[in-house]
Amino acid sequence: MKEIEGISISDGLKYCGSQKAFEKFLTSFYNFIDSKSAEIEDAYNRGDISFYTTKVHALKSSSRIIGAKELSSLAESLEKAGNGGDQAFIDANTADLLTLYRSYKDKMAEYIGGSQAGSQSDASDKKPLPQDVLTEITNAMKELISFEDYDSVEMAIKDLKQYQLTDAQQETLDVIDMELKQLNWDKLGKLIKALVT
Q1: Bigger pLDDT: 181 or 156?
Q2: pTM of this prediction?
């Protein structure tokens, strides 16, 4: 794999578990830079600190997954500021966060460019995800999580990946995959709920 400025490949491989998974997370992260940075900026401009904090928390997790340590650290600091009501810190650092986050668009462009076409064609071959199937699989996942049944949850994730997913569902499923690999059972239940909302 090529070195990408601002990304630790060793950390990314550690968190993702394999090169294939790491490449998938890199592509997902890259694809969401524009929309997710806009959400953070819009929440800040509207003064919606609750939503802002939720979004920087998600950025903290997704950037950690790919080994973007500086970005993850800054997002974590802003998450703490949001939870603690530290508006001054948020005001002083949000622009830096957005600049750093958006800089990854250029940093990753060359690497991601070669893999985008294949991922798009794969998605077009998948069937739409019926609501009843989504409900059935997510209900099963909730039960399996309560028993900490790793293999069965992993199989359920693979089942969902056979279908066409919305951008939000795909992003959430990527994070679920990562949290499962880290055995973060307490976080998985909340993430499962996000798949159906």
Answers
A1: 156
A2: 0.64
